[in-house]
Design a protein that fits this description.
By secondary structure, this protein is α+β, with helices and mostly antiparallel strands. The chain is built from nine helices and eleven strands. The radius of gyration is 28 Å and the shape is elongated.
């Protein structure tokens, strides 16, 4: 009620000014003797009057639309701050940086999701991609993210966390089915856990594997086939939580959504994410924010400023001191560890 009263004067002013100008033009045409004359001078005056009225109406409408656009962007930024909260620069001894691009021009939120939290189990990370992009996928992403932010602290292992996410998504899809807005919805999800000893564990549901950065070398963390995305099939009774070695000091992980590698240029060529990342990490010491900035700049240049899908990047850089017996994480050796 208060908001309606507060907005009423603005609405009256928005509609009142064009109405007043229009009424003045009609009054001039009907009541002013000069408007009834057919001479050249009278016609010029009438034309000037109607031109001024028309210009005023157009400017008023433009001013109103710009004001509403600014308000919509403020609301979108508020939604983004609630959905994709700004990540702290460091979590559990890991340097953290993230970046996100929406495929919808003018939008600031989309279907990509990520979060990093420090728990008693270690640093837990989620990276996901809801089907579609832009505002249509925001509700799905919000349901998964909200569930992760609770389950990451409460869940025992990553399997428990993933089942919580799956149930949250199922509830979201049931609600959308009830109101007739449901479609073929699914979410790719990658869960990572980096323990206090640096041990990396992961569960992957249809998401690209992150890249492991060691010096200037960039390799996929794993090449195993992931589980199907959440929402398409029930989760299996046993979830294969795998350990992928330890993240050693100086190493980093880049998590990303498939919009980064699927971005194409005018000739249909895919964006070379791995090669671009390898070039971006040559400068040492490694700075996650600077690396993401260079990657995004290259991606926007590749797509001429317009990616066709939402893009999210998340980088974790290990800067904690380690014991001498820690084994650096390598893709080929990690896959064989239990």
């Amino acid at each position: 009620m208060i908001r309606i009263k507060a907005g009423l004067p603005r609405r009256v002013l928005t509609l009142g000014l064009p109405t007043t100008w229009g009424a003045g033009a009609v009054t001039y045409k009907l009541a002013c003797p000069l408007a009834q004359q057919d001479g050249l001078g009278a016609r010029l005056v009438s034309s000037a009057v109607f031109f001024a009225v028309g210009t005023g109406i157009v400017l008023q409408v433009r001013r109103t639309l710009l004001r509403e656009l600014r308000q919509a962007r403020r609301i979108a930024r508020a939604c983004q701050s609630a959905l994709l909260r700004p990540l702290p620069p460091s979590v559990g001894g890991l340097d953290v940086a993230a970046a996100q691009l929406s495929a919808d021009r003018g939008a600031v939120i989309g279907g990509d999701l990520y979060e990093v939290v420090g728990t008693e189990h270690g640093v837990r990370v989620v990276m996901g991609d809801a089907r579609g992009h832009g505002l249509a996928a925001v509700g799905t992403a919000a349901a998964v993210l909200g569930s992760f932010r609770e389950a990451a602290y409460d869940g025992g292992d990553l399997g428990d966390v993933l089942r919580r996410l799956d149930r949250a998504l199922a509830r979201q899809l049931c609600e959308r089915a009830d109101d007739g807005t449901a479609g073929e919805e699914f979410v790719t999800v990658l869960l990572l856990e980096i323990g206090p000893d640096g041990a990396v564990r992961a569960l992957n549901c249809g998401h690209p594997w992150p890249y492991l950065i060691t010096g200037t070398e960039v390799e996929p963390l794993a090449r195993a086939d992931p589980l199907p995305p959440l929402g398409l099939f029930p989760l299996p009774d046993e979830l294969p939580v795998q350990r992928y070695g330890r993240l050693a000091p100086g190493q980093a992980l880049l998590l990303y959504t498939d919009g980064a590698e699927d971005a194409r240029d005018g000739r249909g060529r895919f964006f070379p994410l791995r090669q671009t990342l390898a070039g971006a990490v040559r400068e040492q010491p490694l700075c996650p924010r600077a690396v993401l900035r260079r990657v995004l700049t290259a991606l926007l240049r590749h797509t001429h400023g317009g990616p066709s899908d939402d893009v999210a990047l998340l980088m974790l850089h290990h800067d904690r001191a380690r014991c001498h017996d820690d084994v650096p994480l390598t893709r080929h050796g990690a896959d064989s560890l239990s």
